[in-house]
Amino acid sequence: MKTKTLQKSFLNPVSMTVLIILIVVSMGLNILKVIGMPLMIFLIVISFLIASSIRIADQWEKAVVLQMGKFKGLRGPGIFMIIPIIDRVDSYIDQRVRVTDFKAEQTLTKDTVPVNVDAVVYWTVWDVEKAALEVQEYEKAIYYIAQTGLRDIIGKHELADLLQERDKIADDLQKVLDSNTNAWGITCQNVGIKDIVIPQALADAMSKEAQAERERRARVILGTAETEIAEKFAKASEQYRDNPVALHLRGMNMLFEGLKEKGSMVIVPSSALDSMNLGAMGGLASFSKMNEG
């Protein structure tokens, strides 16, 4: 910040242009013998003072001006003047939205799982005077507060909550940061959780657990389907028990479906052959297939 202030103090184009013009004019007058050497030196000194009083702040900046060490006011954006020697520009504060990356490494969750969490916070200075006077290095302060707040929130949540409720955790962290930085004239607009890294052994165990859970659900679904099929067969048997004609037609349909494919073989219980007269039908079907061949 001090380097930036120095550059804007002595190397801005307006100051250099004014200084050069005044020095050239002073030297030109001396060459023409209009003024003497002492007066020319005096004019050159005045030229330096005038040039050093001209400052420039960019469109997104405010300049913090101190007068004899006391806060005088804010200047900019654009060109402004200060009193040389008495006034000085302490800093130029950027009022654009800025972003800070921070992380919490090997932080234990509520269920004692070490995690690495990467996050980012978007913040802006809304009160330049407070940011300049209330905190020495607000960028570093925001970073440490964000990191500490993230560690505290991780310690209050279990791993499952961290993985499933990123948005809620980010909102909670944003409120914590905003409550701490508002006194400095800074607001934290948004916090985002970029990544949550867990130990590889735990990740493998969670993967196996998820796979076992999927297999369990598949077996439950299959068992439920078998139960429903058995219930349907039980209801069908009630219909066939008092209606032998329907049972006979069903047997014929089953036999037809089994024999219509070439090279197929149907195994039927002997009791079904007698009760449903499937033996005769099977012989006719076999005889028909032999004739077709």
How would you portray this structure in words?
Helix content is 58%, strand content 22%. The protein is of the alpha+beta class. The protein has 3 domains: 93 residues, no CATH class; 105 residues, 2-Layer Sandwich (Tetrahydropterin Synthase, Chain A), CATH 3.30.479; 55 residues. Strands 3-2-5 form a 3-stranded antiparallel beta sheet.
Q: What does this entry show, briefly?
A:
With 293 residues, this protein is α+β, with helices and mostly antiparallel strands. It folds into three domains: 2-94, no CATH class; 98-202, Band 7 domain (Tetrahydropterin Synthase, Chain A, 2-Layer Sandwich); 239-293.
In the CATH hierarchy, the third-tier topology of the largest domain is known as Tetrahydropterin Synthase, Chain A
Q: Percentage of helical residues?
A: 55-70%
CATH class of the largest domain: Alpha Beta
Mean pLDDT across all amino acids: 76
Q: Output the structural class.
A: alpha+beta
What low-confidence regions span 5 or more consecutive residues with pLDDT below 50? 1-7, 281-291
Would you identify the CATH H-level superfamily of the largest domain?
Band 7 domain
Shape summary: rod-shaped
Strand content: 15-25%
Amino- and carboxy-terminal Cα gap: 98 Å
So how many helices?
A: 11
Q: How many separate domains make up the residues?
A: 3
Record field, number of beta strands: 8
Instruction: Give the biggest sheet.
Output: 3 strands, antiparallel
The CATH architecture of the largest domain is 2-Layer Sandwich
Q: Nearest-angstrom radius of gyration?
A: 44 Å
How would you write the strand order of the largest sheet?
Answer: 3-2-5
Order of helices and strands: HHHEEEEEEEHHHHEHHHH
